[in-house]
Specification:
65% helix, 5 helices, mainly alpha, 2 strands
């Protein structure tokens, strides 16, 4: 698949995940609102187990939202199309995985093989430049063993779990 086509499909996939996540979050919020409304109408107390379940769901929803924001912030660090391709490949896992996705560290050579198939020198050099530019800006780190990981720290007010 051509690099341009990979960029387009990856962009659509990311956008679809954002849209799905938004729908899911709105549905979750609507469910909570309906439960609360029903409780108020009946003048009842919310059973502790229902309150606890709603709290867990709310925390999960907030965590997903933070992770999606983190992923978007990481991808926004890309200054070139090649850097974006590298970041997308290093993130690798679905958007919902967020920072946990960095546990799946691709090898430097695997990135080269994937992003510059056929060993074309110009393409390989573009991937090298992208990786090291991101590393210089402390978005990525390359271990002595060749593992490439996201090291980006969000500048947002909320810490990631």
């Amino acid at each position: 698949m051509s690099p341009h086509l990979q960029d387009v499909t990856s962009g659509w996939r990311d956008r679809a995940q954002q849209v799905r996540g938004g729908w899911h979050d709105r549905a979750e919020q609507r469910l909570e609102d309906l439960i609360e409304q029903r409780r108020r109408e009946r003048g009842e107390q919310l059973p502790p187990e229902v309150g606890a379940a709603l709290d867990v769901r709310r925390q999960e929803r907030e965590k997903r939202a933070r992770e999606l924001r983190w992923r978007a912030e990481v991808l926004a660090e890309a200054q070139t199309a090649e850097e974006r391709r590298v970041l997308q490949r290093v993130l690798g896992a679905p958007a919902e995985a967020g920072p946990a996705a960095t546990n799946v560290a691709p090898r430097y050579t695997a990135l080269l093989d994937t992003l510059a198939p056929g060993g074309e020198p110009e393409r390989e050099m573009a991937v090298h430049r992208a990786i090291w530019s991101l590393a210089e800006r402390r978005v990525l780190a390359v271990s002595p063993h060749g593992e490439v990981r996201v090291t980006f720290v969000s500048s947002g007010p909320e810490p990631l779990d």
